[in-house]
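Bug #77: duplicate submission created two jobs. Keeping one. Sequence:
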Amino acid sequence: MSNDYSFLLKPLPGFERANLIGNMATIASYFNRGYLQAFAHAWTFPEYQAHVPLEYQALGQEARAYHTTYEQILNASQLQQRIHRNQSTQQALEIIQQESRQQRPVLVKGDTFYCSWLKQNYQQLHNAHFYIVTHHEELSHQLRCTDVAYLTQNHAQPFAEFEAGFTGDLITFTPLAESTLSAAIDPYTLLIQCARRNLGHEDGSIPVFDSMDVLAERLVELDQLEQQHAATAVSEAEEHLQLEMLLVMQARIQFLLLLEHLADPSKEPLKLILNGFQQSVRSWSAIRESYRKIAPSTDERITRLQQIADQIRVVAMLERNIAQTILHDQQIRRIHEQYEQRWEQIQQLNG
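Kept job's structure:
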């Protein structure tokens, strides 16, 4: 294949430590924007209760709150996948070459040890990792790769490194024949649904902004629980609290991308609501970064945790105000519609 990179695939942001879902969504975005509807309910938050004894297993609740499957992404974007299992490297390269000629990306399962763009793992750590191959270059004996990890795009991977790290599985994609994407979600309807749910107005829902306040209130306690587990863990401990902060941020990134795709940002109050979500993303990113950088000193750590707790309370207030603004706007719209209907009736009666 020539070196014409007209077929370039830009990795989507907001999928750190979620390379399978992120790269699946990136591939779906190449075919159409329907994949975004898989994240229609990403504006959420897990439940933290004020008077419930804490357990380490309760941390990292993002698995319940934010779990979006790649099947949902495929269904939303009307893509058909074919999983090629137990392929030899030669078979895999032939499949990649065929798909590359048709300008279709391929999802590959490899080994981080041989992925040179994964700076921390390359030649250091063996882990399964999904990434995207977009080009097969016969003359230079290399592939071109895209990956949500480090927002990698068009990275050259020699055939030799691909062959060393390939684990036998890859996935190809084609749009469903005569498929029609489901009707786009109305942004106002979606926002109203999410606002009502997040404020606890729906049956079975919880007021998630109160849950954010509880997280802030118990942050020091939660951090101590995490530190105790890390001290007793046999292997390297997963930092559940940091992971939860990460996925809170990433879920808002995906929801914001969906809103930006669906909505006209020039219209009020959508412009203000979009600005509010942008601020929420920046705030959760800053909160997570602050937590990552806390010094191990006990006294300083507690002080910094209390400052982060204050930041969480402010973001909870921001998101609560966004939800209340959405419902307030809905009420104003209803009043206006009722006025218009009544005025038209009066005009008809007056002939």
